[in-house]
């Protein structure tokens, strides 16, 4: 029961202040025309890149296709991810209560629901280790550091996905974001620092190629958490803006990186990698399982 003589209801001057009595409908933050078109354009770019990388590998011996296969898997995964997002799948809403402050009347709140493209995090979880593997192979990084770099990248992307579903004003959300950033620091240490040392052992040409590719990729990857903090973190940009910026970063870090790497390894024999054994020849006759052989 509201006291009609209370000052917060009528104000100091006796004038009646409006008191919200209707619960507002949820506010939805979602993509519009620009975001929708961007998703389809990115899908087309990745689909074309997948076909191009596949064609480039046809004239390469299987033993020398490692970079081609990994690059193709990266853009193929991105193709599927962007098709899911463009077609309306791979997305959900995260709703949270937002407080509205009023003068002389009690605060109210309303619900804001923002689109989160979880397919993007699935993409990053798969493609980031593949991109790191290419850098590690190029530089000659040992298996232990390569494995740890891949594990750190998984922590990085999974933590970012958990943070995306947290409330923007809670410590939980920014705690997950901090874990993601720390994991990224470990990725840089395992790949850039160790890779820089091992690449020099393979020669100046390999070191130059690795240095350029690593710097290019890590500069782009450093922009991701900044965009995330502004978009998914603080919700300071529209969903469309986030889609456009992420699409540009994804194309540069996947397609641009792939073309650069494939071109560099073709022009630099020292950077080429040849993998024998099961990769190129399959199981030998001694290693095959013989069905129906009584001596097997």
Automatic annotation (TrEMBL):
<keyword id="KW-0716">Sensory transduction</keyword>
<dbReference type="InterPro" id="IPR018229">
    <property type="entry name" value="Rhodopsin_retinal_BS"/>
</dbReference>
<keyword id="KW-0812">Transmembrane</keyword>
<protein>
    <submittedName>
        <fullName>New eukaryotic opsin-1</fullName>
    </submittedName>
</protein>
<keyword id="KW-0157">Chromophore</keyword>
<keyword id="KW-0472">Membrane</keyword>
<feature type="transmembrane region" description="Helical">
    <location>
        <begin position="66"/>
        <end position="84"/>
    </location>
</feature>
<feature type="transmembrane region" description="Helical">
    <location>
        <begin position="243"/>
        <end position="262"/>
    </location>
</feature>
<feature type="transmembrane region" description="Helical">
    <location>
        <begin position="213"/>
        <end position="231"/>
    </location>
</feature>
<dbReference type="GO" id="GO:0005886">
    <property type="term" value="C:plasma membrane"/>
</dbReference>
<keyword id="KW-0681">Retinal protein</keyword>
<dbReference type="GO" id="GO:0005216">
    <property type="term" value="F:monoatomic ion channel activity"/>
</dbReference>
<keyword id="KW-1133">Transmembrane helix</keyword>
<feature type="transmembrane region" description="Helical">
    <location>
        <begin position="174"/>
        <end position="193"/>
    </location>
</feature>
<dbReference type="InterPro" id="IPR001425">
    <property type="entry name" value="Arc/bac/fun_rhodopsins"/>
</dbReference>
<dbReference type="GO" id="GO:0007602">
    <property type="term" value="P:phototransduction"/>
</dbReference>
<dbReference type="GO" id="GO:0005783">
    <property type="term" value="C:endoplasmic reticulum"/>
</dbReference>
<feature type="transmembrane region" description="Helical">
    <location>
        <begin position="37"/>
        <end position="60"/>
    </location>
</feature>
<dbReference type="Pfam" id="PF01036">
    <property type="entry name" value="Bac_rhodopsin"/>
</dbReference>
<dbReference type="GO" id="GO:0009881">
    <property type="term" value="F:photoreceptor activity"/>
</dbReference>
<keyword id="KW-0600">Photoreceptor protein</keyword>
<keyword id="KW-0675">Receptor</keyword>
<comment type="similarity">
    <text>Belongs to the archaeal/bacterial/fungal opsin family.</text>
</comment>
